[in-house]
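mind reviewing these tokens:
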Amino acid sequence: MSGAQQKMWPVLVSLLLIFSGCQSTTALKSTGADNTGFMSLWGTYTHCKVSSDINDVGSDVQTLGEAAQVRSGPDGFVLPLPKQVTRLISNPTNRYAVDVRAMASACSLHAGQLALDRGQLDVARDMFTSVVSLYPTGESSYYLTQAKTHLSEIENGIPLSLNTP
């Protein structure tokens, strides 16, 4: 080997190690697990939106609400990097393709409207209040605005539905 080839050898080995670390099968396995969890939530959301049974929708609201409240923590993310660089990198958070909080809110609004249609004001109030609890103070959202509007109408006695039980 020439002198130039000997100097390039450590660089090539380092690049090979970095790229092989980026292609590990661990990442593929965790993606599959995340996809399964997401698809389960998506199925729950879809069931909620098409259901007209308040009891079925109630369990969907609970499932989606719990998922929306989950804050992901460190998941053991490891890259083969020097300690000086590793301390500057934070663990990635789990991310879904959609906003789970929005899914939970939409389901709760649907459940609240079903309860109103059946004259169950207490259940409707609980559903709309659960949407409000998903959003911190000062944050704005379509779902939050809808929930507050429905709560205000319930408190003021404004008829919210044309359907009778």
Notes: Helices lie at 3-22, 25-50, 54-69, 83-86, 100-117, 121-133, 142-156. The mean pLDDT is 75.
